[in-house]
Amino acid sequence: MEPTPWDPEGAAVVLDAQGRVAQPGVPIAIDLRAYYKALVSARCLDLRLAKLGLPMFASCSGEEAPLVATALVAGELDWIYPSVRDAAVAVARGLSYEEFAHALISGCDGTALPGRVAAPSVRVAAGTDALGVHLAIAAGQAHGHKLAGDGAITFALLGEGLTTTGVFHETLAVAIACDLPLVLVCRSQLWPQGAPAEAGVLGDSVGERVRAHGMWERRVDGADPIAVHQAIAAAAARARDRRGPALVEVVVSQLIHDPPAHRDPIERLRRHLDAQGQWSATFQDVIEAEVRGRLDRALAGAGGLSA
Question: Which CATH architecture describes the domain 32-301?
Answer without folding.
Answer: 3-Layer(aba) Sandwich (3.40)
